[in-house]
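Recap from last week: sequence in, structure out.
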Amino acid sequence: MTLDSIDKKLLFLLQSDSKKTTKELSLKLNLSVTAVYERIKKLEREGIIDKYVVLVNRSKVEKGFVVFCHLKLIQHTKEFIAKFESEVVKLKEVMECHHVSGDYDYILKIVVKNMEAYREFLVTKLTTLQHIGSTHSTFMISEVKSTTVVDI
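Predicted structure tokens:
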């Protein structure tokens, strides 16, 4: 699907606030409510709009301690990678897991209440996963930029 300028503006508006009504969107886009509705449905059908979510203020729910954990596996076999990935996705403290190139194999974004909670997570959950060779943790001091808007 090729996105035109209206699709791109619509996607920007929805990414900024997905609770806007089709009427509000139609006024901003100078389109009818039906035209906006049809465009949104097409973007959903094509998989360009993947899902709608609510973003929670982590500090308000006692999950303001953010850790970036760099992780190495002991081997890079298909079996070890598959096993690690199938286990790490089950850890609710892990918000993101990225398979990366460079000195480490994975970077995890972990959110917990505080340092004590991170130590507990590290000792009782993360390091009990098979095939982990080493970890290196970096703690967030402050969040300078965080966005979910993809510039199209």
